[in-house]
Amino acid sequence: MKAFRILLLASWTFLAAYTALVIADHGWGLFGVFFGDMRAMGWPGQFNLDFTILLALSALWVAWRHGFSGTGLLLGLTAFLGGALFLTAYLFVASVAAKGDAKEMLLGAERTPAAVPPRS
Q1: What beta strand segments (E) does the chain contain?
Q2: Rounded to two decimals, what is the model's pTM?
Q3: Are 22 and 30 in contact (CB under 8 A)?
Q4: Please, where are the H alpha helices in 28-69?
């Protein structure tokens, strides 16, 4: 788990720095470029569509992990809009909260075997 957390921290740091540089050089106009590439029906647009689907799956997982509660839906929306900057931080916090238990980190505390009563 320690190596995973180091990967998450390194990924977040690199992506945050890269994002800051891009914003400094190109401004905040991401959506025009992003959807413009998709409209052009080329490889950059294909990548953006693929990435959008990954963002949607990430958002769905985060919302599901929180039982589609209000908080879960808000976190899911943040996952969709925040991408890997959000997800790396979210997974880092979840891994610490789960004390390194990968099942709990991925499923949430409510769905881990210790929290689920045995079947009769």
Answers
A1: none
A2: 0.86
A3: no
A4: 30-39, 43-65
